[in-house]
Specification:
Largest sheet: 2 strands, parallel
Number of domains: 1
Order of helices and strands: HHHEHHHHHHHHHHEHHHHHHHHHH
CATH topology: MetI-like fold
Helix content: over 70%
Strand content: under 5%
Strand order of the largest sheet: 1-2
Shape: globular
Oligomer: single chain
Structural class: mainly alpha
Mean pLDDT: 79
Length: about 550
């Protein structure tokens, strides 16, 4: 919200506004830098490979990517929103542990989920083997759904991505006041009708933000679609870049993916429009919970337990059994170092990314304008870009910078500076920030949209500076959103593979790199061990944030 008067409040605002505006633009510039590098590479290269792809596989890339987006978007919306509504509004057996367990699949990398279910459902897996033993059928005597298919990839992505929608929707439902709910009930609406006409529209910004995160993760996914041999834009980019050594073609495909991601962000923003919902006294007058009995309680428990069983319990058991036969020693100094490296990178990246998201969103709220709006929106599209593309997009300009500095120092002072930024942890953290800024920004903005601008105006008239308002008013209210944003970034960094492999410092391996290395050698039993550690490390922040979100409900 802008303040144009020449009052003392404006004078207090200016010292904060200029540095904050500059920092927010710097964050946006860092986020757009690899995209600019990709654009330059796309425009400066030839089009022979792209023309060949257009005549052969480009249509398959487009169709498969769009199908995945539609299926995963619908699936995560239904599962995440439905589960969030049930655990928020209803009391039924197991609801207290289910409201936390429903977020646990977020700790699983999608490609690890693919490994686990392939081991279960593939032809030599336990399911089909048991089926043949019981029936006496041969391999060609029956039909069984193929897990290595587009439908299988979509199912793996839905299982691990629905918690995006669940966490944001649950936080939005918990922040709603009971006033509108009771008003609708007194007018004769049923609970089901009230949900669709009152509660669902109020939570729409948060739900749309969660779906957008899931969709962007889907179009950027490489591990799952590559393992299932599904041709998408992402696999096309990697094939062109690494297999065919045609960086121009890869950059041109990446440019198409960037355009699609930007279109999704714009459509979601326009769909949301000006429909902002603000909390009034809802923080103290929360929605009541309905006690379910009989078949309704059984149905609710089953509906919430199914995603937990297939998204967490079953793959965890499978990976544990696979890991028992491996020779990986978690207590060795080597694995301790993997864990330390992973936690350090994930924690640092989460803090840096959330700070950047707060800067972008808060400055955009205080000083709305085309420049800040554009900077904020363009910062989101990195989530749809494969990590490897972001890594190369950052390595090219920073390597050129390091070489230029080294040449200058060597010529003028005889000092060999080497590579100052390239190959450093901070450049890797920068790549993570670019990759996951949309996660933190969407999550924080979904909470920020519940604070009416009048609250800002009243706070300013009481003499608070913008920084004081952020610290004393916004942060206490938005703690669940900030924790959720940090959680998602932390877990995503733990799972991120391509950017880590390309940009990590020498001899600086993580759990994700170790899991990929073992899986590439067809040692899935060994890969199960670091995968389980990734899941275990992700469980604690999931539980803490879910409990923090649950404290919004008055008891």
């Amino acid at each position: 919200m802008a303040f144009e008067s020449s009052s003392p409040a404006r004078a207090k605002r200016m010292p904060f506004a200029f540095p904050a505006r500059g920092l927010s633009l710097l964050v946006a510039a860092i986020c757009v830098l690899p995209m600019v590098a990709v654009l330059v590479a796309a425009l400066s290269g030839g089009t022979e490979t792209l023309q060949h792809l257009a005549e052969t596989r480009l249509w398959h890339f487009t169709a498969n990517t769009l199908l995945l987006v539609v299926i995963v978007g619908l699936g995560t919306a239904v599962v995440g929103t439905g589960a969030a509504w049930l655990v928020t509004m209803c009391r039924f057996p197991g609801v207290r542990w289910l409201e936390i367990a429903l977020a646990l699949p977020l700790a699983f990398p999608a490609y690890v989920m693919a490994y686990a279910y392939t081991d279960i459902l593939d032809h030599p897996g336990i399911v089909q083997t048991t089926l043949r033993d019981l029936t006496g059928w041969g391999p060609r005597d029956y039909w069984f759904p193929e897990i290595r298919s587009l439908g299988g990839a979509a199912l793996m992505l839905i299982i691990v991505l629905y918690p995006y929608v669940y966490l944001l929707a649950r936080a939005a439902f918990l922040q709603q006041s009971a006033t509108s709910f009771f008003a609708a009930r007194t007018l004769g609406h049923s609970t089901w009708t009230t949900f669709f006409r009152i509660n669902l529209p109020l939570a729409r910004p948060a739900i749309a933000g969660g779906i957008l995160l899931a969709v962007m993760e889907t179009i950027a996914d490489f591990g799952t679609v590559s393992y299932f041999a599904i041709q998408t834009y992402t696999t096309g980019i990697y094939q062109s870049w690494f297999a065919m050594a045609d960086r121009a073609a890869a950059a041109q495909l990446a440019l198409g993916l960037l355009s699609f991601a930007l279109l999704l962000a714009i459509l979601e923003r326009q769909q949301r429009g000006a429909a902002k919902q603000y909390t009034g006294h809802g923080r103290y007058n929360t929605l009541p919970r309905m006690r379910l009995t009989g078949w309704k309680a059984i149905a609710a428990t089953t509906a919430c337990a199914v995603p937990v069983i297939f998204g967490f319990a079953l793959p965890t058991v499978v990976l544990f059994v696979m890991g028992l036969g491996s020779e990986q020693d978690l207590t060795s100094s080597r694995y301790i170092r993997f864990i330390q490296n992973s936690v350090t990178l994930a924690g640092t990246a989460a803090i840096v990314t959330v700070i950047g998201a707060v800067l972008l969103a808060f400055v955009s709220r205080l000083q709305p304008g085309r420049l800040i709006f554009g900077a904020r929106e363009i910062s989101r599209i990195g989530y749809a870009v494969p990590g490897g593309v972001i890594a190369v997009g950052l390595l090219v300009p920073f390597a050129a910078f390091d070489n230029a500095v080294d040449a200058f120092m060597e010529t003028n002072f005889g000092i060999d500076t080497g590579l100052l930024l390239t190959g450093s942890i901070w450049l890797l953290v920068m790549a993570y920030m670019v990759r996951f800024m949309a996660v933190a920004l969407n999550t924080y903005e979904s909470g920020l949209s519940t604070i009416h601008p009048h609250v800002d105006a009243v706070t300013r008239t009481l003499g608070r500076t913008p920084a004081g308002m952020l610290r004393a008013v916004h942060f206490p209210i938005l703690t669940p959103s900030l924790l959720t944003a940090g959680l998602i970034v932390f877990i995503d960094v733990m799972k991120e593979l391509p950017a880590t492999m390309i940009m990590r410092p020498f001899n600086f391996d993580t759990l994700a790199v170790q899991a990929h290395r073992l899986a590439s050698d067809e040692r899935l039993e060994g890969a199960a061990v670091p995968s389980l550690v990734i899941v275990a490390l992700g469980m604690l922040p999931v539980i803490l944030v879910c409990r923090g979100i649950g404290r919004q409900r008055s008891t």
